Predict the structure.
Amino acid sequence: MRIIKGKEILITICISYTIINIGGSVFEAIVNQQSSLCTNNIMMLMWTSIAVFVLSIHHLFDEWSPLAMILVQYIIALSLVFLTMLIGGVFEPVAKGGYQDAYLSFTIPYVIGAVVYYIGVFQSVRRQNRLLQDIIKDKEDEI
């Protein structure tokens, strides 16, 4: 019998909640086309997907300085968010101050997520560098 760890339970809850929430939002959007909650949930899913995708392509900017890479990724992500709002504005008008609200709603979680993501990336690079140094040291000791 396999024991489920707390981290696995938390991940399962988050994934399940997301699937149920987005599924319910899509259903609500189909049945009740005036519901702003479902539209908001779907937009947040799109924006989260944009943020995760843009952060995951950091390897395309390896030759750039870390600061330039982070800024370019943020500009790309924010541009895509505004593009989704522009396209969504064709179907549902954007409220006065909507772009500013979207900027804040996206930027704050994006910065937090990017910090967590890049801390993990830099720790992974350090760990790989230590392993590489250990391998080099072992090879030198053999000679």
Observations:
- The CA atoms of residues 66 and 127 lie 18 Å apart.
- The chain has a mean pLDDT of 81.
- Residues 98-142 form the longest helix (45 residues).
- Helices lie at 6-31, 36-56, 66-91, 98-142.
